[in-house]
Amino acid sequence: MIASEALLADEYDDFELDAPFVLDDDIPVVLTASRLKQPRAEVPASVTVIEAAQIAAWGVRTLPELMRFVPGMSMGHGDDENNASIAYHASNPNIMRRLQVLVDGRSVFKAGIASVVWDDIPVAMEDILRIEVTRGPNAATYGANSFLGVINIVTKHPGDTLGTRVRYRSGNNGVDDGFVSYSGERHQNSYRVTAQIRADDGFDGRNATGGDDEYRDSRRHGFVSAYFNRPVDSSTQLSLQASLKQGNTDIRRESYELDAPDQETRQGYLWTRVRKEFSTAHSSHLQAYWQTDSRKQRSSACLPTISLDPELFSLYQDNPQWSNSVLGITSLIGTTDGDNLVGGIAAGLVTPDQVEALLLANQGLALEITQEQLDSARNIYTRGFNGTDFSQLTDMVCGDTERDLREDRYDIEWQDTMQWSDTLRTVSGVSFRRDQVDSQTYFNGQVHNDTYRLFANAEWRMTSYLLLNAGGMYEVEDTNDNAFSPRVALNWLLAPQHSIRLVYSEAVRSPDLLEQEPEYSIRVSNLSDNYLNLDDGRIYVNQTADSRDLKHEKITSTELGYYGKFSDLNLELDVKVYQDKLTQLISDHIALNSLSVESDTKMNINGAEMQLQWQADSHNWFWLTAAYIDADVTLGDTSELTEKQRRSLSVVELRQTAKDNLVVSWHHQGDSWSLTASHFWLDAYNDTNRYRRYEINTRKTWSLGHYNPWAGFFLQHLIDDDSLAYADQRYSTRDLYYFQVGLDF
């Protein structure tokens, strides 16, 4: 192994094993795949485990950067919300919505607008014990949205971080990070308080040179978290966690906005778990948490007064292309053709057929317009008549916009783990979750979705060399159909630490509330004087729930894998080949002006992955991952889309896919210093890009009595000049670096 297995946090004692499942200290174990602690050779999935020692050795600042060391995973970045995204195999980089991310069993996946916002996760890298990444569908264990995989972040127990830790990091690209943490014990209680702030300037933009930054995508986020643990009695453990966080993220400005609608965010959560051990063969836990996420996003805007006409708003729901034309025609006012067309519609002198013919001849638009829809345009234009002409229809009005959003989650779960015999053990449970969202912009008020879950997984040792894992989860939701997600895996144990596994699994991703039940519109308040005499209004482009009838995204995955630990070489190897069939995908961009959102895209993904960890000697270890991904997308009904929209949709699911992926890392540990060098190679990334870079992280430690200061330097060199996913996502220098200092006492 690269690093010896650390003691697992107390809150995961549900998974403690007794004879005949007792593990030797040298056998790597996994917690996440089935909610049972299992030797790696017996796990019913392909799993990557990243330990605290590796996190420190690599020296990365953020969780998305850390995920680049996982085979088949790639890091991207949204083009509009300024959020890093992690994709496993293939996905749209704008919204990361097909991976489940857990922190100590608490889901940080946002259900209102499906995504994982990595900046909003209040976990310091220094507090992480291990990260387990289940590479493949795992809805059988963690439910809908554990679609392509699960990232489980397990934090350190306060008893493992006693004392004070201080860190500071500074570098180019605006990197400015601080961290302080104190852990203590009193009687039988242990606790930790951590505070962190992290800031950087993001990308520089496509035209910046020499370290300049012309692209507004910087961020600054900070949090304070607390962790408390105590034994209630000899068989019961109580754990509590809480956090408060706030941050600022730059968001690019839309054409009608006068200033940038930067996001001001506030998050918090309360989490508790009580674990009861009834006997050496039976334990349970009860877990509950509440988390809240508040986002304020406001700006000033100027736009055509006609775009706030309430009748144009209603017309958009009935015929969006015609309502776009009603507004577009006003740009021709002042010309003979424009004045004649607007005047003819306002006077009722033209028929729908005549308007359709004019639009087809002059703009190439093939529309179908009813007399009622033409009458709506007549009313809209008439309101802009000033007694002489229609020039008021080109007037502009200014006001304030907001895209505020508050999401709350209430979750309670009971889990029971039972060892029935020497050959059979199970884990089962039930849970209830309410996701509640309040936003005038996205939902015109408050909406919620309740989810009820029943899950079970059984591990049956059929013979001394055959192990069967079978399980599933049944879910009932308010806003989506009921779903059952099964998984069956057979592990053939060639030796205690060598196995061949065959895994079949199914999973779903539930359409989020914005996808399924939107009432989405941009409100403009405190309006300047306008011919409509409005003090506030809504931009005519809008989305309603009547326009949606989406189904669960579905995936069927088959995997053949091998795991082996060669103890004499201190080497671990995991290899797999797989076939994933994805159907009913929602590939359309979920935007205000999306004319159609369907769940009818299909994707087939075939490939192979390998990960190798080798502890060459007491001073050197190596990490090697490789992946080959062959993904093919089949679009659904595109009859209502333009050719440009079809081309864009055909590549959106592959924008964050690298056909070939290779990561190599070497770490050397000296007596009081260390050096880690890593190389990343992604070919055919974003279809044509090649993305290569290397990183070097070095650290020197001193010992001064009870004080242990250290200093480090991190360098990232970009070999290729290609952007990440979009044209502006590039740096104006090939070398990104930062200095780090720390003190432990």
Automatic annotation (TrEMBL):
Matching InterPro entries: Beta-barrel_TonB, Beta-barrel_TonB_sf, Plug_dom, Plug_dom_sf, TonB-dep_rcpt-like
GO biological process, alphabetically ordered: siderophore transmembrane transport
Keyword Membrane: yes
Residue ranges occupied by any TonB-dependent receptor-like beta-barrel domain in the UniProt entry: 250-692
All residue ranges annotated as the TonB-dependent receptor plug domain in the record: 41-150
Entry GO MF terms: siderophore uptake transmembrane transporter activity
Keyword Transmembrane: yes
Cellular component, GO annotation: cell outer membrane
Family indicated by similarity: Belongs to the TonB-dependent receptor family.
Name the record gives this protein: TonB-dependent receptor
Primary location: membrane
Compartment(s): Cell outer membrane
Range of residues in the leader sequence: none
A Pfam family matched in the record: TonB_dep_Rec_b-barrel
Membrane topology, as annotated: Multi-pass membrane protein
Keywords: Cell outer membrane, Membrane, Receptor, TonB box, Transmembrane, Transmembrane beta strand, Transport
